[in-house]
Amino acid sequence: GKENVDSRHNRGRGGETTRFHTVNVAQPVRFSRKCPTGWHHYEGTASCYRVYLNGENYWDAMQTCQRVNGSLATFTADQELRFILAQEWDLEEKTFVRKDQRRFWVGYQYVITNRNHSLEGHWEVAYKGSSEVFLPPDPIFGTAMSENENVLCAQLQCFHFPTLRHHGLHSWYAENCYEKSSFLCKRSQTCVDIKDNIVDEGYYFTPKGNDPCLSCTCHNGEPEMCVAALCERPQGCQQYRKDPKECCKFTCLDP
After folding, report:
1. Dihedral pair phi/psi, residue 110, rounded to 5°
2. Which of 39, 122, 184, 203 could be disulfide-bonded to 48 (CB atoms 3.0-4.6 Å)?
3. How do 181-188 and 101-114 pair as beta strands?
4. Is the pTM of this model over 0.70?
5. Residue 152 and residue 112 in contact, taking contact as beta carbons nearer than 8 Å
């Protein structure tokens, strides 16, 4: 019943001021959450990253990443690697290496071509469907190597201390693939709704944020074509609290 209202001046027809209470006002929205809880987002590759602490061998780690629609992490450029090294991952005391050092399985394998006086070989991307071009430098060889193994698996070592972390200090290890280790998964950014559910391409959803009355379409992992509902204040209630996850739902705080 408030047609032709100029929302900027709250004026109705005939120039009269129309008084009504709007609880949620549509505002330009910045969406900062493009990854599920526990994942870190990097804009440069539109990807999400997560460290898993349950120690698994390389092959089991690869399957765990696939179950969350990802793969063991590989890197497209030095900037992406620096982003990984700078993160303060949510790590528990439980770890498989020294407390100040962290090692993770990542998506590379070292193929041995010569076992003479020194091991010779080259890095390959473990996930054949990957288009990554960044390959690690010569590795440090692990201590648990078998003479029969011709393929070793990559561990990225980073450091827990902030000064070392932010300087990008790190090492690459070629390790026996059946050793157990934490691992780093990577997946494409995705739409995540206000209740932390992953949303498929093309579906409507309410993005994470401060407005539960927003409805958007998921397109390429981004919320697009958003519309907002406006809620009037609950009648007969002077003090109330908005539900942060349900549109136009209130709790009355009056005595």
Report:
1. -105, 115
2. 39
3. parallel
4. no
5. yes
Mean pLDDT of 12-23: 47
Same domain, 77 and 111: yes
| Residue recorded with tokens 């990957």 | 130
Residue 45 and residue 155 in one domain: yes
Residue 4 lies in a domain: no
* C-alpha distance from residue 24 to each of 7, 21, 196, 230, 248 (Å): 13, 9, 22, 5, 9
Total domains in the chain come to 2
Q: How far apart, in whole angstroms, are the C-alpha atoms of residue 252 and residue 250?
A: 6
Two structure tokens written together for 197: 């559910």
Least confident of 138-147, 186-195, 205-214: 138-147
Element spanning 18, H or E: none
Beta bridge partners of 193: 207
Query: What CATH number is attached to the domain comprising 111?
Result: 3.10.100.10
**Residues 82 and 177 both lie in one domain:** yes
Strands (E) located in the chain: 40-42, 47-56, 71-72, 101-114, 120-125, 140-141, 151-159, 171-175, 181-188, 191-192, 198-199, 204-205, 214-219, 222-228, 240-242, 250-252
In which band, very low, low, confident or very high, does the pLDDT at 7 lie, cut at 50, 70 and 90? very low
Domain extent at residue 211: 191-252
Cβ neighbours for 147, distance < 8 A, ≥ 6 positions apart: 115
Q: Tell me, yes or no, whether 137 lies in a domain.
A: yes
Same domain, 64 and 180: yes
